[in-house]
Automatic annotation (TrEMBL):
The keyword Metal-binding is annotated on this UniProt entry: no
Localization, UniProt: Nucleus, Nucleolus
Organism of provenance: Crepidotus variabilis
Basic and acidic residues bias: start-end ranges: 24-45
Biased composition (Basic residues): 7-23
Top-level taxon of origin: Eukaryota
Region feature Disordered, mapped onto this chain: 1-46
Protein family according to the UniProt entry: Belongs to the FRG1 family.
Taxonomic path: Eukaryota, Fungi, Dikarya, Basidiomycota, Agaricomycotina
UniProt name for this protein: FRG1-like family-domain-containing protein
Keywords from the UniProt entry: Nucleus
Keyword Aminoacyl-tRNA synthetase: no
C-alpha cells in the first residue's frame, strides 16, 4: 500500500477546513457573473492580489520583484527582518512558477496586516514569534522589534492600477529595498518618491478579500437608507402653527388650575401664555 502523500499547503491557526463542493449540472456554463459569485467560487485559502487598500488585511505575503525576486521575512530567532531570494519552484509539469503564482512556504514569510480603526493606515505584524510590529523611525531605519503599536508602526498603503503596493510611513517617506555595501539588500523607510525599489507585490488570502467586499457592500447599503430627522418631523407634522407648539383654550384652563394647585411652576405658565399669544399674532 502506498503511503498517503501529506499536503504541503501552508495553513494558519484557526483556519477552518474547506468543505469540498460537488459539481452539479450547469456548473460549466458561463455566468453573467457578479463580483459576489466570483468571490464565492474561490477557495478561502487561495492567495490573491488586493484590488484596493481596504482588502489589505490578514495574513500577507510581501514580495519585491527584483532579480531574483525576494520575500520579506522575519527571523524570530535573530529578531531581525531578512530579505530572502525566492528559489525557482518547478512543479511536476516542468514549467517554473510565475512570480505571482508563488505562495509562502514558511511562516517566516507571512506578515499579518490589521487596519487602524477610523484611519487609512494599517499595522504590519510578524506572523511568527510574539507578533512584533514593523516600524520605521525618523532616520528611515526599519525594524520589527516592538510589542506595542504607535505612530511609527503605522503605514499608509497605496495600491497602484497594476496591483502593486507602496507603503508610506508617518514621516511621509516610503518603504523600499536598498542595496548596501557588499551588495546586500535591506529595507529602508526614507524614500521621497515611489520607484521600482518602493513597489511590492502583496498577496492576501481570498477569505479576507471577500470580507472586505462584504463590508463595503454593507456600507453602501447603509448609505442608501434615508435618515429621518425625528425631532424635525415631530415639530413639523405633529404640532400646530407651522412648527409652534400651540395649546387649546381648554388646555390652558387645565394648566391654570394646575398652577393654582401648586403642581405647575409660574415660569411654565408664562411660557404657555406666550405660545398662546403667538398663535394669534
Amino acid at each position: 500500500m502506498s503511503e498517503k502523500v501529506r499536503s504541503t499547503k501552508l495553513k494558519f491557526k484557526g483556519d477552518k477546513p474547506k468543505k469540498k463542493r460537488k459539481r452539479e449540472a450547469g456548473d460549466d456554463e458561463p455566468h453573467s457573473g457578479s463580483s459576489r459569485r466570483k468571490l464565492d467560487d474561490k477557495d478561502p485559502e487561495t492567495w490573491v492580489l488586493p484590488d484596493n487598500v481596504n482588502e489589505l488585511r490578514g495574513p500577507s505575503f510581501l514580495i519585491h520583484p527584483s532579480e531574483p525576486p525576494i520575500s520579506i521575512n522575519f527571523n524570530s530567532t535573530a529578531n531581525r527582518i531578512m530579505l530572502y531570494a525566492l528559489d525557482a519552484e518547478t512543479p511536476e509539469d516542468g514549467e517554473p512558477l510565475k512570480l505571482l503564482e508563488r505562495v509562502p512556504t514558511n511562516v517566516n514569510q507571512v506578515w499579518v496586516i490589521t487596519r487602524v480603526a477610523g484611519s487609512p493606515t494599517v499595522n504590519i505584524r510578524t506572523g511568527t514569534g510574539e507578533g512584533k510590529f514593523l516600524s520605521c523611525d525618523a532616520h528611515g531605519i526599519v525594524s520589527a522589534d516592538r510589542d506595542a503599536r504607535g505612530p511609527q508602526e503605522e503605514w499608509t498603503p497605496v495600491v497602484f492600477p497594476d496591483g502593486m503596493v507602496a507603503f508610506m510611513n508617518i514621516y511621509e517617506k516610503y518603504l523600499g529595498v536598498d542595496e548596501v555595501a557588499g551588495g546586500a539588500l535591506q529595507l529602508r523607510g526614507d524614500s521621497e518618491e515611489v520607484g521600482f525599489a518602493e513597489r511590492f507585490w502583496v498577496r492576501i488570502q481570498h477569505k479576507y478579500k471577500k470580507e472586505a467586499f462584504e463590508e463595503e457592500k454593507k456600507r453602501k447599503e447603509g448609505m442608501s437608507v434615508p435618515k429621518v430627522d425625528e425631532a424635525g418631523s415631530n415639530r413639523n407634522f405633529q404640532a400646530w402653527g407651522a412648527g409652534r407648539s400651540v395649546v387649546s383654550q381648554e388646555d390652558n384652563k387645565v394648566l391654570k388650575k394646575a398652577a393654582k394647585d401648586g403642581r405647575l411652576s409660574e415660569a411654565l405658565l408664562d411660557r404657555r401664555a406666550k405660545l398662546k399669544s403667538d398663535r394669534f399674532c
